[in-house]
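Sample A.
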Amino acid sequence: MIKHLIVFNIREDATHEECIEMLEKGKRVLSEIPGVLGVTYGTAVAENAKYKYTIAVDFRDRSVIETYRDHPIHVEFADEHFRPMAVDRITTDYEIHE
């Protein structure tokens, strides 16, 4: 399994509630992409954390990374909802070993 992990902060004029609404939408729509096993999101526990939010998308295997990146659902969500809000972000894919 591959975990596509993004940690991020939102633009200054966005609210926490707007961010959670965006993440809920992401959870719904990104889960529809073939090879996506699940989507979760969270908020930092420490108030002084460098990044306040995270979203994790679980992929079946490595082949889904490229398919996901170019999938129209992902492209629309990222361009129209995620990137305009998540202005400070780091994205990394991890292979999960259990």
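Sample B, a different protein:
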Amino acid sequence: MVGSGAPDFFYKEAQRLGYVARSAFKLVQIQKQHKLIKPGSSVLDLGCAPGSWLQVACQSLGPLNNGGSVIGIDHKKVKVPPLHCDSRVQTISADVMTLPKHLLRELSPKQKGFSVILSDMCPLVSGITTKDAALSFELGMRALDLAVGRAASVSNLDGDNQDEGRSDEPSGSDDAGVLQVGGNLVIKLLESEDAKEISQICKPLFTKSTWLRPKATRPSSREIYLICQGLKPEIKI
């Protein structure tokens, strides 16, 4: 709702169309412009509460016989919304910040990872701009790490001595991310210099990365979405 408490257009539309929250229209616009989710896609929704993105993701898969799946994860228990969702949607209660990648991969179809990862995670806003931006950056980096794993760290070196950035630990199942090659990633961030840093990390990893501020975003909000398309094969160093 808007500042006066009166329902706004997107709130009313969500009520009319059976979405559990107005935030559904953010993903509707992202999907309309970028077509990230296709029939047969395997979708991971990080921070899925209250479930509106689960609804839009499932709708984007098309009819049930198209296949595909949607897995939603949130630290809260989230019930799959009865409208716009079908048997392809399930939710898991877990802390995204501590969930090991190998366990996340096991949730994917045939344990081969996901073709689309959506992160609508956002910190509880304190009103302290720098603090909120830092927390948002932490959530964004976690989403990126889950998606591409060690590749994000390698990209972040960006001209530094890469040998110094290598880990001495043996390569393991949690080194690799759970986003498939060619896959798409959406990360919600609060506008800041830190957000720009994540964008710079993503640029060499994906064939295309763009910013979008959906129309359904509240005027007072600083949130913006980084949309990364076409994960490139990992470059060995």
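Observation for Sample B: The longest helix spans residues 129-148.
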